[in-house]
Amino acid sequence: MRHVISVKVENKSGVLARVAGLFSARGYNIDSLAVSQTEQEDVSMMTIVVRGDDRIIEQVKKQLNKLIDVIKVSDHSDYPSVQRELALVKVNAQPAKRPEVYQLARIFGAEIVDISLKTITLELPGEPEKIDNFIELMRPYSIKELIRTGRISMNKE
Amino acid sequence: MTGAEIIVESLKKEGVEHVFGYPGGAVIPIFHQLFNAPLRFYLARHEQGAVHAADGYARASGRVGVVIATSGPGATNLVTGIATAYMDSVPLVIFTGQVSTEMIGNDAFQEADITGITRPISKHNYLVQNVGDLARIIKESFYIASTGRPGPVVIDVPVDVSKAETKFAYPEHVHLRSYKPVYKGHALQIGKACRLIEEARRPVIYSGGGVISSNASQELREFVEKTGIPITTTLMGMGAYPETDPLSLKMLGMHGTCYANQAVHDSDLLIAIGARFDDRVTGKISEFIPEARVIHIDIDPSSVSKNVQVDIPIVGDCRHVIAEINKSVKAPDIGEWIERLRKLKAENPLTYKDSEAKIKPQYVVERIYALTKGEAIICTEVGQNQMWAAQFFEYTEPRTFISSGGLGTMGFGFPAAIGAQIARPDRRVFDIAGDGSIQMNIQELIVAVQHRLPIVIAILNNGFLGMVRQWQQLFYDKRYSHTCISFAPDFVKLAEAYGAAGIRVEKKGEVDEAIARALSITDRPTVIDFRVDREENVYPMVPAGKTIKDTITMELL
Ligand SMILES: Cc1ncc(C[n+]2csc(CCOP(=O)(O)OP(=O)(O)O)c2C)c(N)n1
User: Fold this and answer.
1) What is the mean pLDDT of chain B?
2) Are B125 and B95 in contact (CB under 8 A)?
């Protein structure tokens, strides 16, 4: 199962390497990783999406907790949370196909951020599942480039 | 005060008396301050020797071992020693020099990214970027190294930081919001554990290195006394409970006693204390304890339910938790079980086929035990020598058996013996060695001579990398590929060249006399070259990944 784990860490050099190293050394696979600042200047938040059975996830959490610079580990799969991601998708779209692409973009709330002779680049923020669906719908138009920020997550109050 | 002075002052504040290390360009400012510091400095002859010596010191004394080495090759030479200490949870604080801060990342002369290199093999590490942080970092390092599950901490100090000046104030307290080891076990869990213990009919205690590092030996003894439950220990746990006691089942695992392995396998309750269900202990994990419920006491939450599903996990300091259990636990009704184990023990003793023509390595270990009245501190190398030292000596006190368990580092034993002898000048220290392992850090002999340490190096010289040869014999059609090392130095002459005493023993009848002579020499180390039976094997043996049904015993062959 896929788990979204957020890791509050001291904002110090080497912390990202420590966390990433832990995953590679123990053979856990990261689906996505997003790192950013938080409301506290000296604290960073890492949101890690990792797949594994309960035993592996339990170990991941324990091993993360063991790192001296890790302040808090929470598994967002356990509570209701808001999850967001941003994707940039560059699709091949000849003029004839453009109306279709525009329409799909409108339905999903994607914004057009660049247009060239042969391509349209779209920006889509939102729930990762929505982005997955949008990408599936864009595939027939042939995706030239695709990039995602990785998911960030916040527990609901 | 300069950074270098701060290091020395901080060591004094921490009560450090002994420091091990080796100088070099990036640490000259620190060595400049060590010159007249009130610390005993031991100049190793290879940085690996320094870190193993600090490790042996820490294991024998229970205190933090301290190492100082230079940047680049000095730092990388420490790596095996840091990994060894990390695997066995030994508290060390290691200072490495680094190129100056503005050169870092430029592939400067003698630059190595030692914080990067040691990240997965240290409990924590720091690169000091500002002299203002140095005192706090040292304070934190000693705290982190010695609390929770202990381990090595590396402090990388760029040379300009050593030279820079600031006001010195050693912090009184450590503020680490992200590091708060749990010492007290959960009361509810402890209560549940007591219930399980009282209901058990075939319980066994499986005690590990955590009992020794948390100094819980006394509490463990009370626990066994109160409950009457038999106890087996891991290699790292030996000495926590007297092996001379009838309830002791000695060591379990790959080369453990048949009765310990059988008892654990047949148990209905396994009480794991400060042990981590290592594969050398469990063999094939799915058949390790088919009928047992498990109580697991450990300070490291990540050790619990890692390899084996645990019924009652108790995260906390072994000493504290056992003391709590002792307050309320009642003895279970296990008369039948004890009787069964007594028989098992009597029928399957640890043994070997003695010989008059050849010196059996096990015999040598037994004679060391007899002639030191079991009071020596035994360090070991790795291989057959290590297992015989574990099997044929009876350990009765914690911190008297010192061995690289987790990493299995050849070359560990002798430098560790130097540290142990420094920690315990009141005891005789032995390094039970193989002829292969001893050659990995033989250069440290001069350190023992210089400091007049009366360590006895008992080489069980079989002319082979014996343990590997044993595997080749048993599992690889006796193809002794590159394990014959009979092309060897003359260890007696070598000892003498260093200024140590050297004794060669080729007959069984000379064994006692040689040990007695070594014991009479108290102002320098003695190397005894015991020419033992070349193809003796360590039994019993549960082959890797197998179960106790597959145990190879001497009688089977
Ligand atoms: C640094 C290192 N290299 C290799 C090994 C693999 N190894 C384990 S036991 C062993 C043989 C040790 O030979 P020796 O020291 O002569 O001891 P014996 O087994 O003969 O008692 C070897 C090579 C190791 N444990 N450590």
Assistant:
1) 97
2) no
Structure tokens given for B512:
């006692």
| pLDDT attached to residue A13 | 85
Q: Which residues of B touch A59 (CB under 8 A)?
A: 302, 306
Model ipTM value: 0.89
Q: Measured between CB atoms, which of B116, B144, B300 is closest to A17?
A: B116
Token pair belonging to B164: 């820079």
Q: How far apart are CA B170 and CA B95, in angstroms?
A: 17
Q: How confident is the model at residue A27 (pLDDT cuts 50, 70, 90)?
A: confident
Amino acid type, B146: S
Contacts of B544 (CB under 8 A, 6+ apart): B254, B279, B283
Closest Cα of chain A to B141: distance in Å?
Answer: 11
Here the tokens at position B63 are 């205190």
CB atoms within 10 A of CB B516: 11
**Cα gap A105→A86, rounded to integer Å:** 14
Express each pLDDT in B420-430 by its tens digit.
Answer: 999 999 999 99
Mean pLDDT of the A27-53 span = 93
Asked if residue B63 lies in contact with residue B118, where contact means CB atoms within 8 angstroms, the answer is: no
* Contact (Cβ atoms closer than 8 angstroms) between residue B389 and residue B403: yes
Residues B197-232: tens digit of each pLDDT: 999 999 999 999 999 999 999 999 999 999 999 999
**Which residues have C-beta atoms less than 6 Å from ligand 1?**
B 381-385, 408-410, 434-437, 460, 462, 464-468
Coil, strand, or helix at residue B125? strand
> For position B557, what pLDDT does the model report?
63
Q: For residues B464 and B462, give the distance between their C-alpha atoms in angstroms, rounded to a whole number.
A: 5
Q: What is the DSSP string of chain A?
A: -EEEEEEEEE--TTHHHHHHHHHHHTTPPEEEEEEEE-SSTTEEEEEEEEE--HHHHHHHHHHHHHSTTEEEEEETTSS-EEEEEEEEEEEE--GGGHHHHHHHHHHHT-EEEEE-SSEEEEEEEE-HHHHHHHHHHHGGG-EEEEEE---EEEE--
Specify the residue for token string 């060390």.
B92
Q: What is the mean pLDDT of residues A62-73?
A: 95
**Which amino acid is residue B161, in one-letter code?**
V
- Distances in whole angstroms, Cα of residue B384 to Cα of each of B16, B255, B392: 35, 10, 12
For residue B555, pLDDT beyond 80? no
The residue nearest atom 4 of ligand 1, judged by CA position, is B410
pTM: 0.96
Query: Residues with Cβ < 8 Å from B201, sequence gap 6 or more?
Result: B268, B332, B333, B334, B336, B337
A-B contacts at Cβ under 8 angstroms? 36
Name the token pair of B52: 């193993």
Query: Helices in B113-257 by DSSP H: which ranges?
Result: 114-118, 131-146, 159-163, 187-199, 209-213, 217-227
Whether residue B177 and residue A13 make contact (CB cut-off 8 A), yes or no, is no
Pick the atom of ligand 1 nearest to B410's CA. Answer: 26
Instruction: Of A59-63, B63-67, B534-538, give the lowest mean pLDDT range.
Output: A59-63
Sign of the torsion angle spanned by Cα atoms B277, B279, B283, B287: positive
Residue of B46, B362, B382 to mutate, ligand 1, most atoms within 8 A of C-beta: B382
